[in-house]
Amino acid sequence: EKKEVSQPALSPRLLRNDGLARTWWKKDDTFWVPKASVIVSLKSPITYASAENVVKARIFTELVRDALEEYAYDAELAGLQYTVSLGSRGLLLDISGYNDKLPVLLQQVASTMRDLDIKE
What we know:
Elements (H helix, E strand, L loop, with lengths): L12 E5 L4 E4 L9 E9 L7 H17 L1 H9 L2 E7 L3 E9 L3 H14 L5
Antiparallel strand pairs: 1-2, 3-5, 4-5
């Protein structure tokens, strides 16, 4: 919804900050582009507990990317992109693009991460 503002917001507002989530929000009141970005940090002390776990986590991120290759291509054509990577405390999931279909991509990536069928 485009609404004239006297002064564009310079920084995002913190909407939620507790043990489960930290949520920031800022509407694009300068260029009015309907884009969004969702960054999910899946914190786990197990990820960096050993070198073996780090390698397994890295392989997992590559397998998720491989499983989503075809789906992600179509999403990219529609102006959406995602990354699954290792962060300093666990896995990071970053999804961005046009906000009308962003929840669809988020659901697909999360489902793939949850239900990934790893074959020998």
